[in-house]
Amino acid sequence: MVKRAMHCKRIVVKIGTSSLIHRNGKVNLQTIDRLAYALTALNNQGYELVLVTSGAIGVGMAKLGVSMRPAAIAHQQALAAIGQSELMTLYTQRFSDYGAKIGQLLLTHDVFDYPQTRQHVLDTIDALLAQQVIPIINENDSVAVDELDHRTTFGDNDQLSALVAKQIDADLLMVLSDIDGLYDQDPNRHPGATLIPEITHLSAKVLAGAGGSSTRFGTGGMVTKLKAAQTMMRAGKQMVLASGRDPRIILRIVAGEPVGTWFGNVLEQVSPDNQASNS
């Protein structure tokens, strides 16, 4: 098996709501546990990890036993406030089980729009990483709103994770989702769709093919993931899009296993024989 040479030290991992919440609306405790295990394992090896998490509203709905997401923005923000507290409690429990330390940052787009607040956030992240603390970042859904002349919301955490990764000069962004990677067709509609193992150029054709009404491939789905990949590639960095069903896949990605779809400008590959001779 040919492996990828990842060459990464500072890593941002983004996990989506679909990976954290079961289809029945309950919190996926196994996913959170495996995520904590994988990130702690890498942290213990000296990697610098930042987690960008979604799921506040979903966890809030689970906490209150709400099955339908409310239409009113205020009600969604209330659920986010409840869910964010619960989500951090779960993360604290699971990371503590493995002996890791975590810290929370809630951000809005305004933070990155202004140089002073942006630098404060970057300084905080650097200080946490220097102490081997894993920052856990989410959008501040309780205050982020779409209003005229007031741009606060990221719209989705794919964009947030790419922005954070770029700002902190991360070597690698991992986006864990409900899909195994980028396909040549929508696998929900085309059973014969083929996974694309690597992308070194995001053409207009690839971007256009990510559209559609599917929840995985429409706006807020694959489109935002490709935009995140584009952000990383333009910065000379790399991104891997992979399944979040079992977050231990993070360890396989760092080890160079060809899972998911790799996005980058140059793909260096090493065979097991070459890897052995270099070790």
TrEMBL record:
Compartment(s)? Cytoplasm
> Which Gene3D superfamilies did the record assign?
Acetylglutamate kinase-like
For this protein, the record's InterPro entries field holds: AceGlu_kinase-like_sf, Asp/Glu/Uridylate_kinase, G5K_ProB, Glu/AcGlu_kinase, Glu_5kinase, Glu_5kinase/COase_Synthase, Glutamate_5-kinase_CS
Enzyme class (EC, first level)? transferase
The superkingdom listed in its UniProt entry is Bacteria
Q: What is its EC number?
A: 2.7.2.11
Annotated positions binding ATP:
14, 177-178, 219-225
Q: Which PROSITE patterns match?
A: GLUTAMATE_5_KINASE (PS00902)
Q: Identify the GO cellular component terms for this protein.
A: cytoplasm
Residue sites binding substrate per the record: 54, 141, 157
One BP annotation, GO: L-proline biosynthetic process
Q: Which UniProt keywords apply?
A: Amino-acid biosynthesis, ATP-binding, Cytoplasm, Kinase, Nucleotide-binding, Proline biosynthesis, Transferase
What catalytic reaction does the record list?
A: L-glutamate + ATP = L-glutamyl 5-phosphate + ADP
Predominant location category: cytoplasm
Q: Which GO terms describe its molecular function?
A: ATP binding; glutamate 5-kinase activity
Which Pfam families would you find in this protein's record?
Answer: AA_kinase
- Pathway membership, UniProt: Amino-acid biosynthesis; L-proline biosynthesis; L-glutamate 5-semialdehyde from L-glutamate: step 1/2
Q: Which residues form the Aspartate/glutamate/uridylate kinase domain?
A: 9-241
Family membership, please give it: Belongs to the glutamate 5-kinase family.
Purpose: Catalyzes the transfer of a phosphate group to glutamate to form L-glutamate 5-phosphate.
Official protein name in the record: Glutamate 5-kinase
- Species name: Lacticaseibacillus zeae subsp. silagei
